[in-house]
Write a structure and sequence with these properties.
Blueprint (H helix, E strand, L loop, with lengths): L1 H28 L2 E2 L4 E4 L6 H6 L7 E2 L5 H11 L2 E9 L4 E8 L2 E9 L2 E8 L4 E3 L14 E5 L4 H13 L4 E6 L5 E5 L3 E6 L5 H14 L3 H6 E5 L7 E4 L3
Parallel strand pairs: 2-5, 6-9, 9-10, 12-13
Antiparallel strand pairs: 1-3, 4-5, 6-7, 7-8, 10-11, 11-12, 13-14
Length: 241
């Protein structure tokens, strides 16, 4: 009998504790998050104001109603982030945001809604707004990308990675307003690639082959430009003596 009474008391205590914790946690999840309840980790460049300005979050808002996945997509796109995780927390209460920034490998320039925006490009071809760029290694950058657009991202990435893995150095990557692509290589000078993104791999391979075959400085100095708009018929124009 004593054991049964003891078990009943313990069971009642556990039930009360469970109900209390459930009520407490429910209360916490419906508690409203304010700006001061946000913690940012991984970047000193991005502020709480940046988070508010570049997401659809409205403060104060109940913790349980924050759409973490949707907010992550917004911040990743609007702040040019490589990765972001938005975590709802009860202990301590608030919103925890983990950020991984992109590393610039080239200077960049784009036109958005008629305005020129300066920034940087990472090895994936993504544009990074100057305000949110990690500028620790900027002294090493020698490439400039002009006329960047979202649909040029993959091409930009291929060009930047080609110079990383081969003996070529592109000092300028230029997309004209109509999409015509022109490169400037340190030794080969102006290289015209044209409009067709589907042949970029072939064109880049030809550039590497030309650079490997022409080593003499006197020959390189005489090159005026290279036309690879038709990869099957490369044209090298030289200065007339």
């Amino acid at each position: 009998m004593k054991n049964q009474k003891k078990l009943k008391k313990e069971g009642f205590f556990l039930l009360v504790t469970f109900l209390f914790l459930t009520t407490f946690l429910t209360f916490k999840t419906f508690k409203k998050v304010n700006l001061q309840d946000i913690s940012i980790f991984g970047s000193e460049l991005i502020t709480i104001d940046d988070i508010a300005a570049n997401s659809s979050l409205n403060f104060p808002t109940p913790l349980i109603f924050i759409k973490t996945t949707y907010t992550e997509k917004e911040l990743k796109k609007n702040l040019s982030l490589k990765n972001v995780a938005v975590i709802r927390q009860i202990f301590p209460f608030g919103l925890k945001i983990l950020i991984k920034t992109r590393t610039p490998v080239a200077y960049g320039e784009r036109i958005l809604e008629g305005q020129k925006i300066t920034g940087f490009i990472d090895e994936g071809g993504f544009f990074i707004n100057e305000k949110y760029a990690d500028k620790k290694n900027l002294k090493k950058l020698s490439t400039k990308v002009f006329g960047w657009k979202e649909n040029f991202r993959e091409i930009s990435s291929k060009i930047l990675n080609t110079q990383k893995n081969n003996d070529v150095e592109f000092v300028k990557i230029n997309f004209s307003p109509n999409g015509f692509l022109t490169l400037k290589e340190k030794s080969l000078k102006k290289i015209m690639l044209g409009f067709n993104p589907n042949i970029i791999d072939t064109q880049l391979q030809i550039i590497c082959d030309i650079k490997n075959q022409i080593k003499e400085e006197s020959v390189l100095e005489n090159i005026k430009n290279i036309d690879l708009t038709d990869p099957s018929n490369p044209k090298i124009k030289v200065f007339k003596p």
